[in-house]
């Protein structure tokens, strides 16, 4: 009998090492004792038999709660996911009363939300069920080896010591699931429906449309695509121009202030840092007001006779795009200047002295020493800034609100980025399905650019070894 137990334990351990967690589900039937096999149906029974009362009750309570939830609402919520509702709210004739009565309709939005929650609940239950099987197998192994079975107080000590990281991560993970994963899944699935201004539940249900929204967005010739492609083009132009103009400007400014013959360096740095200290929305709204047709700049230029009429900074499409890029310089350059200033102070002076001895001029020194050194360190930050500018809502919306308007666009203006267009579709047009589609496309673009650009940097290739 002892030999059989040792062989069973040996088999369990060897399969565990070879196949990891997957062995519990299959080999519980083959190598498990009666309590382990019974745990496949009645969760926690093995824990109760072996004296782990609290853990056993937890597993049983989880199973009972899950079964009650699935029987009462869960199964129906998952079933309704296929149609997102069938009954529309409206007036129907009641034969008993002989009058029209208002019929309560299904709410597609709530059906989708509760259906996603039900799917997640099933997934979480499966994980807990697997943990129950794993616990039963471990108890069987401990019993066969004649080892002490840990009680509740032992588990508490373990989760406050060796497994403290699991204890500390429980609440954050719960919050991430409730406030990030679940809403994110809901918003992603909206992209595969026709949830828009014409389909507002419960009066008008929305349904699944598959990839139709993506086809409308990406195909050529439609109203939506005739807006998407120009807006995408401007988004990329803006991201490149805004990123590299502030980057190069910040480097040049840092080098200029850092030169030996420049006095009161701290004063000049402080002056530019003030633009960071002032809230960004204050600066942007001030600039917007100053550059209006009747703003301070136009009035001043007309008063001194440089122009006869106002310059249309915000109403001329091309000029509006140039203006937002120029205004962004005032906001972005100081950040780069601060970063580069710290880097310049750490470049070995011997490199510059050796280059001068070899006859290198300022331009050669900049491109051969300063720029490679700065770029090596700031390349990941540069990529982050580029992705941030793709999603730069504040600058565009506070300066132009996406304008000037274009009648050929679908609820978008000439300076709208994808993210500001998404905002308008959601808040003004109630075109939630298109907004969700744009959100997915922006996410995919950000991932692709991030991975491709980062893998091209020296910081990634050389793994931090600069020479």
Indicate how many domains the architecture comprises: 2
Helix percent reads: 55-70%
Fraction of residues in β-strands: under 5%
Strand order of the largest sheet: 1-2
Please tell me what the overall shape is: flat
Order of helices and strands: HHHHHEEHHHHHHHHHHHHHHH
CATH architecture of the largest domain: Orthogonal Bundle
Count of separate DSSP helical elements = 20
CATH superfamily of the largest domain: MetI-like
Q: Give the CATH class of the largest domain.
A: Mainly Alpha
Short structural description:
Helices cover 70% and strands 2% of the residues. It is mostly helical and 467 residues long. A hairpin with a 4-residue loop joins strand 1 (90-94) and strand 2.
Describe the structure.
A two-stranded antiparallel sheet has the order 1-2. It is mostly helical. Helix 1 packs across helix 6 and helix 16 runs antiparallel to helix 19.
Layout of helices and strands:
Layout: H1 2-19, H2 23-31, H3 34-39, H4 45-49, H5 53-80, E1 90-94, E2 99-103, H6 108-145, H7 152-159, H8 164-190, H9 212-218, H10 223-258, H11 265-277, H12 280-290, H13 296-303, H14 317-344, H15 349-357, H16 362-390, H17 393-399, H18 418-427, H19 432-456, H20 458-461
Antiparallel strand pairs: 1-2
Helix pairs in contact: 1-2, 1-6, 5-6, 6-8, 8-19, 10-14, 10-16, 11-14, 12-17, 14-16, 16-19, 18-19
């Amino acid at each position: 009998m002892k030999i059989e137990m040792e062989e069973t334990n040996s088999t369990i351990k060897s399969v565990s090492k070879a196949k990891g967690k997957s062995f519990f589900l299959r080999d519980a039937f083959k190598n498990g004792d009666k309590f382990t096999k019974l745990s496949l149906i009645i969760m926690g029974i093995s824990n109760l038999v072996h004296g782990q009362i609290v853990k056993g009750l937890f597993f049983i309570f989880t199973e009972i709660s899950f079964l009650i939830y699935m029987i009462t609402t869960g199964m129906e919520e998952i079933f309704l996911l296929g149609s997102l509702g069938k009954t529309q709210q409206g007036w129907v004739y009641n034969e008993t009363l002989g009058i029209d009565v208002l019929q309560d309709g299904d709410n597609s939005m709530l059906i989708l939300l509760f259906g996603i929650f039900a799917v997640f609940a099933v997934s979480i239950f499966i994980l807990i069920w697997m943990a129950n099987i794993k616990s039963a197998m471990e108890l069987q192994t401990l019993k066969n080896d004649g080892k002490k079975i840990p009680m509740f107080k032992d588990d508490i000590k373990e989760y406050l010591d060796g497994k403290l990281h699991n204890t500390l991560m429980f609440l954050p993970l719960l919050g991430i699931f409730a406030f990030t994963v679940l809403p994110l899944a809901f918003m992603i699935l909206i992209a595969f429906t026709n949830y828009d201004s014409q389909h507002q539940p419960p009066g008008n249900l929305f349904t699944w449309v598959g990839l139709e929204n993506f086809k409308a967005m990406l195909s050529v010739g439609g109203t939506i695509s005739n807006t998407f492609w120009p807006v995408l083009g401007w988004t990329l132009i803006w991201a490149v121009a805004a990123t590299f103009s502030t980057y190069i400007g910040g480097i040049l400014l840092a080098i200029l202030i850092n030169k030996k013959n420049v006095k009161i360096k701290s004063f000049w740095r402080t002056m530019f840092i003030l633009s960071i200290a002032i809230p960004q929305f204050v600066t942007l709204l001030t600039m917007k007001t100053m550059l209006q047709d009747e703003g301070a700049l136009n009035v001043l230029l007309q008063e001194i006779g440089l122009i006869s009429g106002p310059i249309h900074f915000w109403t001329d499409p091309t000029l509006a795009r140039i203006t937002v890029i120029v205004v962004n310089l005032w906001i972005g350059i100081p950040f780069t200047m601060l970063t580069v200033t710290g880097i310049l102070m750490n470049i070995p002076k011997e490199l510059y002295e050796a280059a001068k001895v070899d006859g290198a001029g300022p331009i050669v020194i900049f491109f051969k020493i300063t720029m490679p050194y700065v770029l090596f360190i700031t390349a990941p930050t540069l990529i982050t800034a580029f992705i941030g500018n793709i999603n730069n809502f504040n600058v565009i919306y506070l300066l132009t609100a996406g304008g000037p308007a274009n009648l050929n666009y679908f609820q978008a203006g000439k300076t709208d980025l994808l993210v500001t267009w998404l905002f308008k579709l959601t808040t003004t047009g109630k075109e939630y399905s298109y907004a969700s589609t744009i959100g997915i496309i922006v996410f995919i673009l950000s991932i692709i650019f991030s991975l491709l650009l980062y893998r091209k940097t020296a910081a990634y290739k050389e793994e931090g070894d600069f020479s």
